[in-house]
Amino acid sequence: KKIFPVVVTCVPVLGPVYHREQRREKSTVVAGLATHRASRHFRSFWYYFSEGFDDFANQIRETWPGMEIGRPEVVDALTGELSMFCLEDRMTRELYWVGFGFQVWCQLLTHLARARDSSIVVVDEPEAYLHPDVQRQLLAILRDAGPDVLLATHSTEIMSEADPTEIILVDKRKSSAERLRDVSGVQRALEAVG
Predict the structure, then answer these.
(1) What angle do CA 32, 37, 41 make, to 5 degrees?
(2) pLDDT tens-digit readout, 111-160
(3) Spatial distance between the Cα atoms of 24 and 47, rounded to a whole number of angstroms
(4) Using one digit for the tens of pLDDT, what is the confidence trace for 65-110?
């Protein structure tokens, strides 16, 4: 670590947020950031780490037309329940009642925002729940994120947006991966994923 001071951030497996999220302890939220529990603590993350929220909300506005998201707020002081309200075309709903794709998109942008000072960010199959148009948009966001990105995907949408030299084809039947060089290599990769 002294010789190679690399900071790696892993985006965990993303899924829908909990319907009712109780505010968690800050230490619990931090401990779960790179785990499958991260989606359970999404509102709590922004409750404790609100300094980057305005940039996050602006990115939502820019990447998901017609949608805005508000800061988390305590809606039940007794239980500590948190809500985040979204405004979509003049209709306000709690985040849970917005589609799973939007929930996952919010989480993905959150993890990318927290990884800005990292050397490498690892993203594993972010395409789950995401509309093909959003998948295509993701690659541009990852390119501008700051750190180097290692993205594992089976998404033909993401692969078709990538430059051939950005793709490495991994076949578990072979002893090494293959860096693609041209469109014919991309075609082989697309055929391999189906």
Answers:
(1) 80
(2) 998 888 888 999 888 888 888 888 888 888 888 878 888 888 888 888 88
(3) 10
(4) 899 999 999 999 999 999 999 998 889 999 999 989 999 999 999 9
Please state, in angstroms and rounded to a whole number, the distance separating the CA atoms of residues 112 and 184: 31
CA 106 to chain centre: 7
Rounded Cα distance, 106 and 169, in Å: 28
- Written in H, E and C, the secondary structure of 100-166 is HHHHHHHHHHHHHHHCCCCCEEEEECCCCCCCHHHHHHHHHHHHHCCCEEEEECCCHHHHHHCCHHH
Nearest to 63 by CA among 112, 19, 18: 112
- Residue 26 falls in which region: left (phi positive, over 0), alpha (psi -120 to 50) or beta: alpha
E strand or H helix at 40:
none
The separation between CA 184 and the C-alpha centre of its own chain, rounded to angstroms, equals: 30
Task: Say if pTM beats, i.e. exceeds, 0.85.
Answer: yes
The DSSP result for 51-86, as a single string, is GGHHHHHHHHHHHSTTEEEPPPEEEETTTTEEE-EE
For residue 19, give both structure tokens.
């319907």
DSSP, collapsed to helix, strand or coil, labels residue 17 as coil
